[in-house]
Amino acid sequence: MQPLTRAGLAQMIDYTLLRPEATSAEASALIKEGAALGVWAVCLSPSLIPVTKGGLRLAVVCGFPSGAHYPEVKAAEAARARADGADELDMVINLRWAMEGQWDLVEQDIMAVRAAFPRPGPLKVILESAALNEAQIVAACRAAASAGADFVKTSTGFHPAGGATAEAVRLMAASVGPNIGVKASGGIRTTEQALAMIEAGASRLGLSAAAQILAGLPS
Q1: DSSP 3-state percent helix, strand, coil across the chain (nearest 5)
Q2: Is 53 a catalytic residue?
């Protein structure tokens, strides 16, 4: 495998702004900087859209950050995001159902969002992997794949258990196989961390430190 260039890594990045107090001006600045950096997409909270995308794809979060919303509420949020211009959707699973092993409910939750946000728009399913054990991560990945997810994603970045790890990414990639992507997100702040996630099997990265991470690679 050829070493990644700055441009190659940029095309794997969802440049993220999800702080609750983030302003419209900050979102516009993020989009402008993301376009200059050549990232794949920007990822924003739903109340920050619609926005002028600046030629980038727009990812929007759903059921964020707790995932404890009713499925019909998540579905309504997904439909509104699509109507407001979202190209991709990042939804959070219901962690209680995952921890209780209620995988049929987890799958139904994801299916409700998938129906409200149909393809070709990619659906990424956030597992909050640091809060789950290995068996739960595997089961959550299988539920997401069965429900029509295009990606499984490690973390919101807001859970006290932590964010992405290379070990979780590796397990998730093995669990979903080659036809579903893995997005590593949560606590990725250095070039070395980003590359470690990709080596472990991540095909997309969610991060807010895009400029400094990309600066660590040759152009």
Answers
A1: 45, 15, 40
A2: no
Domains and CATH numbers, the chain: 12-214 (3.20.20.70)
Alpha carbon dihedral 69, 115, 148, 146, in 10-degree steps, equals 70
Q: Which of 14, 74, 124, 153 is catalytic?
A: 153
For residue 3, give Cα distances in angstroms to 8, 12, 63, 211, 217. 9, 14, 36, 19, 9
3-state secondary structure of 101: coil
pLDDT of residue 111: 98
User: Which band of pLDDT confidence, cut at 50, 70 and 90, is reported for residue 1?
Assistant: low
The answer to pTM > 0.70 is: yes
Query: Of residues 14, 74, 90, 124, which has the active-site annotation?
Result: 90
Token readout for 69 is 């919303």
Strand 13-17 and strand 123-126: the pairing is unpaired
**Is residue 32 flagged as an active site residue?**
no
**Could you confirm whether 153 is annotated as catalytic?**
yes
37 with 211: CB under 8 angstroms?
yes
Of 2 and 204, which is predicted with more confidence?
Answer: 204
Q: What is the DSSP letter of 165?
A: -
State pLDDT tens for residues 20-65. 999 999 999 999 999 999 999 999 999 999 999 999 999 999 999 9
